[in-house]
Each structure stands twice: as C-alpha cells, then as structure tokens.
Amino acid sequence: QVQLVESGGGLVQAGGSLRLSCAASGRTFSNYAMGWFRQAPGKERDFVAAIDRSGDSTDYIDSVQGRFSISRHNAKNTVYLQMNSLKPEDTAVYYCAARGAARYTYYYTGMSEYDYWGQGTQVTVSS
C-alpha cells in the first residue's frame, strides 16, 4: 500500500502561482511513477501531468504546457506540481496518483493506470 497526502492548495488570483505537494509513504517511493489529475465541479477527473520514476521524463495536458511543472524528490518521498500563470479554468480539486513502474522511463496518463490516489486538495483561481 502507498498512502498519498496532497497539500498546498488554496485561493489565488488569476496570474498567480501555487505549488502543490504530494507526500508518499508506505513503499519505496522511487519505484513509482507519479501523476497529477484534477476534477472541476460537474466534470470528470482529467489528467494534468505525469513523471517517471527518475524524474527525467514528464508529460502534460496541452492546456497547462508551459505553465505547470511536475517534479519529484525521491529522497523526500514527494512529488510537486508548480503552477504558474493560473487561470480561472484551472479551478478544481487536484489529486496525485501513484503506480508501480517496471522501468525508470515509464510514466502514465490514464486514470485507470494508477493504483493509489490521494484525497485531493482544492485549488480556486479567482478572476
């Protein structure tokens, strides 16, 4: 089992920044590819960003490319999502997810590919 706890959400004005953190416990963190997803009210949960075990390979949904950055610190068992130039449409509950990966270079973009989820943290961007 892997336990994931997100933090860092809050209320921010459009154009502002937030950094989300996801602390993992229970298993060897470096064995897991990680991802961030978000769910806006009345909408499905969507992929935002993913990172491989080493942190060298990442992927983003088009709408956040160039504004968001995913990173990880394996020694601290933590994955981050740096969010800059925030827009009202970024408002959602943000979830981190983990999945065991056989190779360092694998990352995953589908919800069904992940085995463990955090409880989510609310991000609200005002216009």
Features of this protein?
127 residues; mainly beta; 7-stranded mixed β-sheet; 11 strands; 50% strand; globular
Number of strands: 11
Question: What portion of residues belong to β-strands?
Answer: over 45%
Low-confidence stretches: none
Structural class: mainly beta
- Please report the number of helical segments: 0
Radius of gyration, taken over Cα atoms and rounded to an integer in Å: 13 Å
Shape: globular
Q: Share of helix among residues?
A: under 10%
Give a quick account of the main beta sheet: strands, pairing sense, barrel closure: 7 strands, mixed
User: Mean pLDDT, as a whole number?
Assistant: 96
Terminus-to-terminus distance: 40 Å
* H/E series: EEEEEEEEEEE
Q: Describe it for me?
A:
This protein has 127 residues and is mostly beta strands. The chain contains no helices and 11 strands. The strands form 2 sheets. Strands 2, 4, 5, 6, 9, 10 and 11 form a 7-stranded mixed β-sheet that branches. A 4-stranded antiparallel β-sheet has the order 1-3-8-7, with no helix packed on it. β7 (68-73) and β8 (78-83) form a beta hairpin. It is globular. The protein starts with a strand and ends with a strand. The mean pLDDT is 96.
